[in-house]
Specification:
Number of helices of chain A: 2
CATH architecture of the largest domain in chain B: Beta Barrel
CATH class of the largest domain in chain B: Mainly Beta
Radius of gyration of chain A: 12 Å
Helix content of chain A: 40-55%
Radius of gyration of chain B: 22 Å
Distance between the termini of chain B: 66 Å
Order of helices and strands of chain A: HH
Helix content of chain B: 10-25%
Number of strands of chain A: 0
Largest sheet of chain A: none
Strand content of chain A: under 5%
Structural class of chain B: mainly beta
Number of helices of chain B: 2
Oligomer: heterodimer
Number of strands of chain B: 14
Distance between the termini of chain A: 24 Å
CATH topology of the largest domain in chain B: OB fold (Dihydrolipoamide Acetyltransferase, E2P)
Strand content of chain B: over 45%
Shape of chain A: globular
Shape of chain B: elongated
Order of helices and strands of chain B: EEHEEEEEEEEEEEEH
Chain lengths: 63, 200
C-alpha cells in the first residue's frame, strides 16, 4: 500500500482520509506514530502530516 | 462492489466439493496492524464456516486464500472490507445419493443419522416395511416380526430422498433419508445378505 503524500490530495480527500483514519484509531487500530497526540482526530492529522497513513484514494470509480 | 459470495470454480462431484469462491469480508480495525492474510482468513472463517448457501451447500472449511484485492473503507465504519478469492470445502447433499452414516439419536418418530457436517432424519416408516415400535427404556426402535433394531451408534447405509436447506438458520435444515431399498440398511444386515448371496 502506498503512503500518502500530503500535497497529492485535495482538501476534501484529505478530510475523508483523516476521518477514515480517526475512526479506525477510535475503534482500536494500532497508531503509527509515537507521541502523536491525545485524541483520535489529532493522531490522524499528525499521521497525515507525517505521510504514514496507508490509505489511498480511488478517483476513477464511476457509480 | 460485486455480489456477495459467488462461485468461480468447482472441483469434485459428490457431496464434498472444493470450490473457489469470491466474497467481501470485513476486517475489524483492531486487526489492522497484523498480517492481512491471517486476519482475512480469520474473518472469512467467522463469517462463512457453518453457513448454508442454497446453491452451494454448507461451507465446511476455508482451505486457502487465493487472492486478496484492495481494501475498501466505508462511511461510518472503521473496518476495512477486502474482496477476496479463496478455496473452500463445501458439503452439498444431493437427492438420491447413497451415504454411509452413524445413528446419533433415536426418538419416537425415527432416527437421526450423522452424514458428516449435517444430520439427516431416517423416519420410522422408512426403516423397514415391517411395523416398528419405540423402546423408550433402551432408546431404540424394534421391528415387530423381524429382529431388526436401530439404536445409537449403528452404522447404516442410507439414501437421501428429501432436501430442505435453510439459509437463514442452518440448524433448521432438514435432510430426509430412507433405508427401504435394496442394498440399504444396517451394516450387519448388509453383511449377512452378502454372505447369503455368496452361498447361493
Amino acid at each position: 500500500m502506498n503512503k500518502i503524500d500530503y500535497k497529492k490530495y485535495t482538501r476534501f480527500e484529505r478530510a475523508r482520509i483523516v476521518g477514515a483514519r480517526a475512526i479506525q484509531i477510535a475503534m482500536g487500530a494500532p497508531v503509527l506514530l509515537e507521541n502523536a497526540g491525545s485524541n483520535p482526530i489529532e493522531i490522524a492529522l499528525n499521521e497525515l502530516k507525517a505521510g504514514v497513513i496507508p490509505i489511498t484514494v480511488k478517483r476513477d470509480r464511476k457509480v | 462492489m460485486k455480489k456477495s459470495l459467488y462461485l468461480l470454480n468447482v472441483c469434485g462431484l459428490s457431496m464434498y466439493k472444493k470450490c473457489v469462491l469470491y466474497d467481501t469480508v470485513r476486517v475489524p480495525p483492531t486487526e489492522l496492524g497484523e498480517d492481512i492474510e491471517i486476519s482475512v482468513s480469520r474473518a472469512l472463517r467467522e463469517k462463512l464456516e457453518g453457513r448454508i448457501d442454497r446453491h452451494l451447500g454448507m461451507i465446511v472449511s476455508i482451505l486457502d486464500i487465493v487472492e486478496i484485492g484492495d481494501g475498501h473503507i466505508l462511511f461510518g465504519d472503521g473496518a476495512v472490507y477486502y474482496d477476496t478469492t479463496f478455496e473452500a470445502l463445501v458439503f452439498q447433499p444431493v437427492l438420491q445419493e447413497v451415504i454411509d452414516g452413524i445413528v446419533v439419536e433415536v426418538v419416537e418418530f425415527g432416527a437421526f443419522v450423522s452424514i458428516g457436517p449435517m444430520d439427516g432424519l431416517l423416519h420410522i416408516s422408512q426403516i423397514t416395511s415391517d411395523f416398528m415400535s419405540y423402546d423408550s427404556k433402551k432408546a431404540r426402535l424394534v421391528a415387530k416380526d423381524t429382529k431388526l433394531s436401530i439404536s445409537e451408534g449403528d452404522k447404516v447405509r442410507v439414501r437421501v430422498v428429501a432436501l430442505s436447506l435453510n439459509e437463514r438458520d442452518p440448524r433448521e435444515s432438514k435432510i430426509g433419508l430412507t433405508m427401504r431399498q435394496v442394498g440399504l440398511g444396517k451394516y450387519e444386515h448388509l453383511e449377512e445378505e452378502r454372505k447369503k448371496e455368496e452361498v447361493a
